[in-house]
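We modelled the chain as a single entity of 325 amino acids. Its sequence is:
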Amino acid sequence: MNTRRRFVTAALGGVAGAVLLPRWARADWPDRPVHIIVPFPPGGGADLNSRLLASPLQGLLGEPFVIENRSGAAGRIGTAYVAKADPDGETLLVTTESSIVIAPHSGVSMNYDPLKDLVPVSLLTRNTVLLVVHPSVKANTLQEFMALARAKPGQLTYGSSGVGGPNHLAGEIFKKMSGLDIVHVPFQGTGAALQAIIAGEVNAMWGFMAGLLPQVHAGTVRPLANGGRQRSPALPDVPTFDEAGVPGYEAVSWVGMFAPQGTSPAVVEKLAGAVKTAMADPSVKDVLAKDGSEIVAMPPADFRQVVASDYAKYAKLSDVLKGAQ
């Protein structure tokens, strides 16, 4: 009888202990819908990556993955939301380097520390930054665009996904290297900037190839140069900036997934494994390849090194970033 009583007491104690454990300490993740926060409006590279991943991740992990766009401040609003969320694996972030490694060096107000408050899960894609112009702009090459800017200093405008974002930085570094006076017009995300250039509200735009390629094919924007070290297979006739007359210029961005600090390492590893499998799914891989994205799913430890390296790189560009505000 005493043995049975001790067994029952121990069993009940174990159940009670499991109930008292925080949800993120359990091994049954996920057991309810997972929300992926995209800190930009629909239409950009981070949004495209998230929406493509949602269905295969649900198939692999058994729970819905719901995409939420919480845009503003070049990604900082949505990023801060995730940084302060419970580390239960139910709130994730898919963003660009804008709100992770660029913002800390740009002098903007921040209420989170990207290195302390977020855990890298996986790099998803690298995306070449592309310079496009509205069809009304009388420039078919980068050299013609630069000549036009020299002839009209301060009159040409370019749009970006927001102050401090990678596309903004791409434009400002181009201005510094070329000595041209082109006016920056920030928007809340790539989608909003894209609508502005299609409508002719700005003359040019630096943006991710993944988001711009459909408009290039539709003829609503004209590509002049890509920021990669090599021409993209998606746009083989478009030269690099280096080829087109700005030696050494490079602008390549990335999209990655993060979780709040304190998320169980087991959950992070399980999620990273599922992401790697999902990124290889034809429904994801084929679309991203056609959009000019390079798939680079990698383990959390490797992505952490990328974040650290880029954080140090942009620290050296703080003068450009602060001068671009």
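As a brief sanity check on the tokenised model: The chain has a mean pLDDT of 89. The domain at 24-126+253-323 is CATH 3.40.190.150 (D-Maltodextrin-Binding Protein; domain 2).
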